[in-house]
Amino acid sequence: MMILAKLNPAIINHRFLEHNRKDQTNPLQQKHQYHRQHTYKTTERLPPLVKVAVNSSSPSNRQASSSVSAASCGELVDEFDPRYADQIKNPRDFFTGRLGNVEYLVCRDEVGGKVRAFHNVCRHHASLLASGSGQQQSSCFVCPYHGWTYGLDGALLRATRIAGIQNFDVNDFGLVPLNVATWGPFVLLNLDKDSFPQQETEVGKEWLGSCSEILSNNGVDSSLSFVCRRVYDIECNWKVFCDNYLDGGYHVPYAHKGLASGLKLNSYSTTIYEKVSIQSCQGSSSDSKDDIDRLGSKAFYAFIYPNFMVNRYGPWMDTNLVLPLGPRKCQVIFDYFIEPELKDDEAFINHSLVHSERVQMEDIELCEGVQRGLESPAYRIGRYAPMVENAMHHFHQLLHGHLQN
Ligand code: FES
Ligand SMILES: [Fe+2]
């Protein structure tokens, strides 16, 4: 599952500047983490997207407005904190996390199995209430500082040693709630004031717009089992990674020869929605390569502006979260899910992951090369290939609008 918070510039700035991410406390991440470390040697200016003209692309850093700083790059990016269904499958299951300066606690209540979310902050003296994730032994959270105790619904059940206190009503000191909803395999947190709609279909529409049904109908659902996480630190601006994803398969025959043999590249199509683009492609009918089983008869790749991807192919789904770590560095978190009947097929899983890993390495090499190219004095502006790079152009248009605001 996934946590999503809507845009909150103050929070995002903070998160963007938070370079040391090694203290994250997701046990699944610890268990499966794969880090590709690079030396981060300089602080070049962000190659910005200062202007999106029809059919011209990728202004280089030579066109950089000095006002476009590294921090503004972070401001554009929604905050995500990927989590998994398994973590709150049962009553009293919970997980905690941080989105910018918002410490949150998500749990499943015993009453009706309702998913609840709160600020993970004790109302006494602001201690963090819970930490990590797991299942509570009892139906409450006890503050580790002075023992104030809260129910799974956030109510203050017990305030210790408050005899003599005046003007105090326990009803005024429950945990501060956060808006939470689930959609398919994801849990969404909304840090804006507005609450989520009640119906899951409406939640999907709010998050994904008119394509939410398409994702549901193409197997992005809660039946999938989490397999593992891979984390890649890449020496490129976060937008370079997104651009690479959004070129309509343009680079596939040149840079991913193994993958190309598993796809019918002439069937590649791109559909643009409000803030989502979906690229799709049929699997190859030839039986020449191993990737065919992994990719199935159809693959689709959904980009959810500005930095989240959902990929569904064969029995697999993976999600990619792109986090800016600096003007020329980002981190990409891959979470892999599989259809439940294959979740114990270790051989197939390992085989697929090896193939996927190869594709990621090929993409990383491309992205890091593009980053260096953008910094070169030779590059000023590129061109869009109109037949294939529609999703990239859509991304740039949204980004341009965002930068203008
Ligand atoms: S801060 Fe939680 S009980 Fe004092
Ligand atoms: Fe690629």
Automatic annotation (TrEMBL):
Molecular function in Gene Ontology: 2 iron, 2 sulfur cluster binding; choline monooxygenase activity; iron ion binding
Record InterPro entries: Rieske_2Fe-2S, Rieske_2Fe-2S_sf, Ring_hydroxy_dOase_asu_C_dom, Rng_hydr_dOase-A
Enzyme Commission designation: 1.14.15.7
Pathway the protein contributes to: Amine and polyamine biosynthesis; betaine biosynthesis via choline pathway; betaine aldehyde from choline (monooxygenase route): step 1/1
Superkingdom to which the source organism belongs: Eukaryota
Rieske domain sequence ranges: 80-189
Catalysed reaction, written as an equation: choline + 2 reduced [2Fe-2S]-[ferredoxin] + O2 + 2 H(+) = betaine aldehyde hydrate + 2 oxidized [2Fe-2S]-[ferredoxin] + H2O
Cofactor or coenzyme needed: Fe cation; [2Fe-2S] cluster
Keyword field: 2Fe-2S, Iron, Iron-sulfur, Metal-binding, Oxidoreductase, Transit peptide
Subcellular location: Plastid, Chloroplast stroma
Uppermost EC category: oxidoreductase
GO annotation, cellular component aspect: chloroplast stroma
Main location: plastid
Record function comment: Catalyzes the first step of the osmoprotectant glycine betaine synthesis.
Family, per entry: Belongs to the choline monooxygenase family.
Name of the molecule in the record: Choline monooxygenase, chloroplastic
